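Dear Dr. L.,

I hope this message finds you well. Following up on our conversation about the binding site, I have prepared a predicted three-dimensional model of the protein together with 5-bromo-uridine-5'-monophosphate. For your records, I am including the exact sequence and ligand specification that went into the calculation, followed by the structure tokens. Please feel free to forward this to your student if that is useful.
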Amino acid sequence: MILKKKYGERAENFSNKAARELLSLIDRKKTNLSLALDVTTKREFLEIADKAGPYICLLKTHIDILVDFDQDLIEQLKELKTKHDFMIFEDRKFADIGNTVKHQYSKGIYKISEWADITNAHPLPGDGIVSGLKEVGLSLGRGLLLLAEMSSKGSLATGTYTEAAIEMARRHKDFVIGFIAGRKLISDDDKDDFIVMSPGVGLDVSMDGLGQQYRTPRNVILESGSDIIIVGRGIYGSGKDIAVEAQRYRDAGWEAYSQRLMN
Ligand code: 5BU
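The resulting structure of the complex is given below.
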């Protein structure tokens, strides 16, 4: 897998503010690690984010699993973002018609568009989902990822569905900055550039008993040409030292990228 350009150099391929910032941040901080922070209390959430913060480019949230969510959590999250220099990705997986997702993105309790630099959507409903989210997010400098593939066993997002996701992204290049997928989806010579983020990454286990399937940072970045590894329980699983594990995944992800550059 040949990589022609470094992360930072690719920033110029994007008009989207979030994409440009993320690619520059990855280069500046030398980390392609995103932490999937799936804990259910505010205390754990902020504690882990603070410990892993120095090693990540992107904090991935599922804000609706917090049992004690409040506005103060968002204020503290923003402080950690500045303190550690990372961006925020709410893994909301929007999946409805444009008019509905517009409200889900900007309103309700969470007001995702106010604090999440990046969010994602299933291409399933058609282009309207992107248009609806774009109405809210583009002027705020936000970026969207389309779920072109999923890491779970038996995922239906394959073949022509994945191809259609790529075509949808091409039609909305100003707002769609990339994909959730397990591999690079378009060639380096393509006129369009997209950032690929891969969940289902772990160094110690191969599955979780509920359909999740894990591959290593080397598989994902070096062999499959993805750009960002998303790691959750591999970092904060029971008994783990958060900073040690975050550093381990950061190093593995960066090593895989460095090797890809040399190829
Ligand atoms: P884990 O603890 O590393 O298994 O967490 C993986 C995270 O990535 C979790 O937040 C999932 O919701 C998320 N995820 C995923 O695992 N697979 C996918 O295809 C997508 C998201 Br999309």
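In brief: The pocket of 5-bromo-uridine-5'-monophosphate is lined by residues 36, 38, 62, 91, 147, 150-152, 180, 199-200, 208, 212, 230-234 (CB under 6 Å).

With kind regards,
A. P.
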